[in-house]
């Protein structure tokens, strides 16, 4: 297995010493606006609160995560100094939410140069979220595929690790089949995906089924902001099905929203309850399959690093 140095280093930077992903997501935007709107805040005050929330989370919890997922609008690079130096940094490059069009949903970058910015800012990886429905109009599906392929190509050219997050909607064939089908659509090398971030399987699924869909590439699960007691057994079952860890956010920290105007209370909550939640998640994921042990890589000793840029002077 040949792999480029930038992508290899990306994997090492965002995983722990055992090659397992225990990552914290702070790239939420629209969902936070919706939550804060309930407190009667205008747009400017909502934006100020979001910045304060993200800064406090990074300051308090980043040292306990293998990596943090941040957005380039309200968190990064403004709060770079609050991220622990040993913690990997993933930049979320999509515009929050989606555009509803006839018979489907489409996504776009939060700014055209988002991928180049991630490279300039020294991020360890990029993450793109797309919405996917197998029953959507073919034009919509082809547009989403073209979008992912373009991002994957740019990530390859810049030698950046590429994480693809797929959120299904309009599911008519069952959750398990919908997720597996969505992964399969983007697993070929032409899309350049290195790591999949997916909705956790609620039904039982064999590791071989997921790896068949992903061509053996590593995958992690998101939480969707469900309650911690509900998510813990789900995470455990997905670990048994071959997941290489988690990339979650609100399940750990969403309850600090009510303290948005009191930084001390937010910090107190995160240092106690939030840290406990994160510790429980890390305990449940400690037997995850290391990224380099997935069928795609086949073991650390099987990875040969190759130069990824043209015209390198020998």
Keywords:
alpha/beta, TIM Barrel, 8-stranded parallel beta sheet, two-stranded parallel ribbon, 12 strands
Tell me what the structure shows.
There is one protein chain. This protein has 314 residues and is α/β, with parallel strands linked by helices. The chain has one domain: Aldolase class I (TIM Barrel, Alpha-Beta Barrel), CATH 3.20.20. 39% of the residues lie in helices and 17% in strands. It is built from 10 helices and 12 strands. It has helices at residues 5-14, 30-37, 43-61, 114-120, 138-158, 175-185, 207-214, 228-240, 250-253, 263-284; strands at residues 2-3, 21-26, 67-71, 88-92, 99-101, 104-106, 125-132, 161-168, 195-198, 219-221, 245-248, 304-305. The strands form 3 sheets. An 8-stranded parallel sheet has the order 10-9-8-7-4-3-2-11. A two-stranded parallel sheet has the order 1-12. Strand 7, helix 5 (138-158) and strand 8 (161-168) form a beta-alpha-beta unit. The chain is globular and about 50 Å long. It starts with a strand and ends in a 9-residue tail after the last strand. The model has no long low-confidence stretch (mean pLDDT 95).
The largest sheet has its strands arranged as 10-9-8-7-4-3-2-11
> Remind me, CATH topology?
TIM Barrel
Could you give the order of the helices and strands?
Answer: EHEHHEEEEHEHEHEHEHEHHE
Characterize the largest beta sheet: strand count, sense, and whether it forms a barrel: 8 strands, parallel
Number of helices: 10
Q: Which CATH architecture would you pick? A: Alpha-Beta Barrel
CA radius of gyration: 19 Å
Say how many strands there are: 12
Number of self-contained structural domains: 1
CATH superfamily, called what? Aldolase class I
Helix content range: 25-40%
* Relative strand content: 15-25%
